[in-house]
Every structure is written in C-alpha cells, then in structure tokens.
Design goal:
The complex is a heterotrimer of chains A (182), B (399) and C (194).
Chain A lengths: L2 H12 L3 E7 L2 E6 L4 H10 L7 E9 L9 E8 L6 E8 L5 E3 L9 H11 L2 E3 L38 H4 L14
Chain B lengths: L1 H9 L5 E5 L11 E7 L2 E8 L7 H5 L4 H9 L6 H16 L5 H30 L2 H22 L8 E2 L2 E2 L5 H25 L3 H7 L7 H6 L5 H5 L6 H4 L20 H24 L25 H13 L6 E9 L2 E9 L5 E7 L1 H13 L4 H11 L3 H5 L1
Chain C lengths: L1 H54 L4 E2 L5 H9 L23 E5 L7 H10 L5 E5 H6 L20 E3 L6 H18 L3 H7 L1
Parallel strand pairs in C: 1-2, 2-3, 3-4
Helix pairs in contact in C: 1-5, 2-5
Classes of the chains: A alpha/beta (182), B alpha+beta (399), C alpha/beta (194).
Chain lengths: 182, 399, 194
Amino acid sequence: MNSEEIIEKLKSAKGDKLKDTEVTLGDAIVHLEPGSLHEVAEFLKSDPDLHFDYLSCISGVDYLDLEREPRFECVYELHSMDKNHSIRLRVGVPEEEPSVPTVKDLWPAAIYPEREIYDMFGLTIEGHDEQKRLLMPEEWEGHPLRRDYDLTREKVAFSHNLDFKEELVKEKVPTRYKPNQV
Amino acid sequence: MSVAEEGLLERNKDTMTLNMGPQHPSTHGVFRVVLEMDGEMVRSSDPDIGYLHTGIEKTGETKLYAHCIPMTDRLDYLNPPGNNLAFCLSVEKLLQTEIPARADYLRVIMCELTRVASHLLWLGTHALDIGAMTVFLYCWRERELILDLNEMISGVRMMTSYVRVGGVMKDATPEWIAGVKHVVDILPEKVDEYESLLTRNPIWMDRTIGAGVMTKEEAIQWSMSGPCLRASGVNFDFRKQRPYSRYQDFKFDVPVLTNGDVYDRYRVRVAEIRQSREIIKQAIENLPEGPYKVEDNKISLPDRDKLKTSMEALIHHFKLVSEGVKVPEGETYVPTEGPRGEVGFYIVSDGSGIPYRMKLRAPSFMAIPGMCAMMRGSYIADVVAIIGSVDIVMGEVDR
Amino acid sequence: MGLIDQAVDALETEIGNLKLNAQDAVEQLDADLSGAVYDTILTTKLGKVIGWAQKNALWPATFGLACCAIEMMAMANSRWDAARFGAEVFRASPRQADLMIVSGRVSQKMAPVLTRIYEQMPEPKWVIAMGACSSCGGIFNNYAIVQGVDRWVPVDVYVPGCPPGPEALIYGVIKLQEKILNNAGSDKARMRAA
C-alpha cells in the first residue's frame, strides 16, 4: 500500500482520534494527541492490511527555539515487514503535562527508546515501570537534549587567553562522582 | 551502584550476581551487563549502557551539515561511509536533489567495501572470543587491504568522511580502481579459507549451534534488524525492499536462514561478505562516467580550479563554507541497510544550514533488549558467544 | 727577536697555567666522586638493567573504549606487529598489566571506572593517552566527554590522531620505552617502584 492508501485506511477507521494527517516527500505522517496514541497504535498493529509489526525507533524533539506549540514531540517510526510500508506518528507533548503512554505492550523493543526519551528530554512515560536514566549517570541532573541545556560549560583555552583559564572554566559540570565513592 | 543494591534486596537469595563490567575483553566495547546466575545458568540479565555517551546528537545541533559528517563517522565507527550515507540521504531527500550515477556507484562501492571490512572484523573478534585466534589474525590481514584503499581515496584509514551531501568527496583514481579489482579477485579464496577453519569445525558447531535462539516472532517484536533478523527467517533487506543509491541496478542475493542461533548468524554474515563482493564487482566493472557530485553549486562545492576564473564559483564556495547548505524546512527519515541492520537519521530542519535535530536510529541500540532476552536460560559461556554474534558497537548505542 | 722571545715566554707560561688548572680540576673531581662512585654507579647500572627489562616487556591492559581501540587491535595484529616491542600480551586483568592505553573517548560515566582500573594496577605503571579524545577531548567539546584523561590519571605519552594509525601508536610506545630507559636508575624511577 502506498502512503496515501495507508492514510485513507487509517482516517476511515480512526479519523476522530487523529489531529492531522499529511503525505510529505512520500512519507505517511500522522499527528496525534498523547491520549489517543495507544489506541491508534494498537489499530495499526492489528489491522491485517496495515500490519505495522515492527517499531523502528522513537525520537524526541524539543521545539523550544522554533517556538512551536506543543513544545515536545515524540516521533514513532513504524515499519511493516511483510507489506513493506512505513508510517510516522508524531505525538505532540505539551510542556505542562510532559507524559506519553507507553507502547511496550505492543512492541517490547520500545523499552529502551522510551527510557532514553525520559533521560534526554524529561518526558515521563506512563506505564513504564523501569523509569530510570539510560545514557547519563544515575545522579545526573538535567535533561541534556533539551534546547535550554548548555552544550558545554567550558570554553576552549588558546594561547591568547591562557592567563584567564580560571575564568573560562565557569563551573565544573556536576557529576556527583568522586572516585572513592563508586 | 545504587541500582544494583536496590535490586539485590528483592532478588532471590539463591542466585549469584555476576557483573560483566564495562572493562571486559569480550564485551566489544564498554558494555556492562549484570547477570543473575543460578549455578552456570543465567536467570536474568540487566544491561547497563551509557559508558560511551558522547552527546553527538546535541553537538550536531550546533554544526553545519558538512561539519556533522565527521561526527557521524564516529557513531558506528566500523561503518563510517554507511553512517555518512544515511545522513546524506536524509538531507538530500529534504533538498529533493538527484545524485549523479557515478556518485551513486562510488557510494555503493565504499559502503560495500566497508560492509566487508566490518564483517571481517566481526568474524575476527567473535572467533577470538570463542577461542579461535588464527581467524582473528587472518581476517584483519584482509581488512588491512580495504583500509589501504580507504587511505588511497580519502587520506584516512578508518573515518573517511567520503560520502558528502550531494555526492562524494573525491573522484576515483586509476590506482584505486585497480586496488578494488584486486580485492574483488582475492576475496573469495580468503573467505573459503575462513570457512574451512570454522564452518564444519566440530568445536565451533558445538559452541554455536543452539545458543542464543531467537524465533521469527521474537526477532520482529524485539526490533532486531540486519543479519540477526535474517538469520531468524525474516526476508527483509532495505537494499532490496526500498532501494536507495541505485542498488536496484545490481544483482545480488539476500541470505536468509531459519534457526536464529549463533551459528546461523555467523553463516548469514559470511554469505553477506560473498554477496557484497558480487555487488562491488558489478559496480566497479560498470562504473559510469560523469560528475562525482551534484552540479548545483548551492549544494556541493565547486571545483577548486574554477575558483580562479569564475566569480559565481567563488561566491558559492564562500556561502557554502560559511553558512552551509540551506535545507528547506521539514523532517524526514530514510532507512538504509548497514552491516548491523537498519541505520537511518531522523533530521528536522528549520531552513538554515544547521540541523535542528539529528537523531540516529542505531541498530545495536534497539538490539540490546533482544540480546538480553536471548541470554536468559543460557549458560555463562554462551553469553560471550551471544554478545559477539549480535555484533553491537557501543559507539552507536550510546551516541 | 726580542718580541718573539717574549711571545714564546708568554705562551709557555699560559700552557703551564692551563696544565696546572686541568690537574687541579681532575683532582677536584676525584675528590668529589671518590666516596660516592661505587654507590651511584652500581645502582645506576642496576637501575638501567631493570629499566631495560621493563621497557621491553610492557603488558598493556585491555582498555579499548571506542574507535581508537580498533587501531590498537590493528597494532597487535600481523601487519604492525606489537609483539616485536614486547607489548603483545594484552592482559584482561589490570592486576597483571603495567601499561594502560586509554584508547577512545572517556565519558562522564566511564571516568570513575577508568580511575578504578588505574588504581588496581600495581606499580610501576604507565599511561598512554591514545588519540585526540583522551588527550584533550578531541572533536567533542561538550557536557558528556571528559576533556582530557589527564584530569583523572597521570599520563606519560600522548599520541595524537583521530584515530592514530598503528604506526603512530607504535611510535608512542617507543617513546615511552625511551622515557623508561632515560629515567631508569634515577630517583624518579625509584619513587615509582616504591
């Protein structure tokens, strides 16, 4: 099925749950609210014509600098192994209620990307019982991939500003690690 | 760590907790897995990643597209042209440009050569873990030939940054073409040599047949991709199903086996080396003439000799180097087939020369929960074989 | 004629003075070293022998982190044979190793593990920071990477490159061998072993 047919089928079955649909550059894209994500995902997986049985990845995007509402977006990329088509679900997550329902009951592989989204963006995943950091150390504070998190706290020291090295290192990044403590 | 301490209070007192720490000769990088053992059998496994987290995705949000390419080299550091290609395909899809045929063929040759090099490295280290050291020395000897070719064409042995937005970095020279033909000539007998050492070897078969079994349904549920998926019986390869970069021009088979154990994954990968050799042979014999990058100077740099005579070339060069390629607003994802599975970049662009969000879909990252599901119920000696057979690279897991 | 005689006389006195000065200097040296000669020459020679033995049998600990680890493995392989320099036995346990080649980028989560491995290695031990990322943070100037492993452990040799080719790493190992031999028998080496 090509992208237009997929969108048509989805709209005819679950049209009221979708916020928006589009076919851009050949990709089928569906915009959703967090509340309707699980129902639409279940339909996509179980319907025999669509049969999206493969979760490719879950990405998070922070639209703070583009000043778009809602601020965060969770993007689910799904493939179908036997029908050879794909769909992209974009779930807008507002800043006031940063939480998304889990899809790990449909695709067990979702546990890792969801933990990463919690770690990097701070969005809580409802129903995911192992909500802990994945890539950063346990005691790290802050969510690195948010746009208001600094990339680095330290400027590069060259020979012309070597005397001011102490001023350049503003504040050591808090790692909460001391070698003896481990 | 605090997590392990909490877990200990709940766990069954009859099991022993074994930590395969981040520094371990067989974990293929800094991967830590905490195993709950009942004697020799593994009851549960708890992986811990993040020891190589580099913040590449966040750093990419501050760099021009051309500057992001060397960063993508270092994500999956055994497949630099493949990562570059996945990045460039997403950018070119947003730009909606056509890539000339010679550039596509050169990209295919580099990616397949790197697939061969990656599988050779995998075979060497996997065999070393299981105990066969000779294969390690033999495989890396062939890999050196491919690294020499890399150096000939791009100047660097490993992190070539060869595939650029709009084409490739440099045209193929006659010495390089002769070198590729030489590799194509000698590769089949070398692969026969490795197979003669391992495939019918009773020790190898005893250790790998039946270890780490993953059925077809499990493989799809756990989002395994690449050789792991094909060894479990799913006939899915992005080069065939969604051809990119003129892969539809080449005739090659996709090896698929059904048992889904370590032995099958080994056989699938060795068969893939042979098929990659076929692709390289067809590509290098039919290499078309023409430009090696897009002629549009708003996307790819003009030739250096034109800079002395043409004003437009000078201005385009200046604009491209200082402000970067202006990619239209939008977001896209193009899946490609890497040696480990599905590699793709989800790129969100805001219209400027700097990507707004660049996210790598890493096959090893998605394979780790599946790999730990494979470990449950197997013996401790099989754990090493399983980790080796899934072929994880921590650079792309942790990004 | 008178002038030539005067010149000859002046030269003779000068030569005589120089001879006397040289003799004084030799006697002085003799006096300085006579008491200590036996002692320093013996320990220096012994120290040199120990240093020669240490440098020719450096056992690296397997500490491959990222891309540089691949080039480190290539160094141990048949084309660039590190076994010629004695450094072929990569020990998995840090307790049996004396050289730690930090090959690859060290993230914030890995840095305490690095120090722990370093502390577990017995003296004398050396550290080679291989590649740009472990020397100074490399191309990753951000929150996640330690900007130079010398903030956590003392480094002896820095090998630049991204990744440095096996020949560059072998050059680094040779430089470390020269360093060991130069410092052998001296107070520095004795303090390391203490």
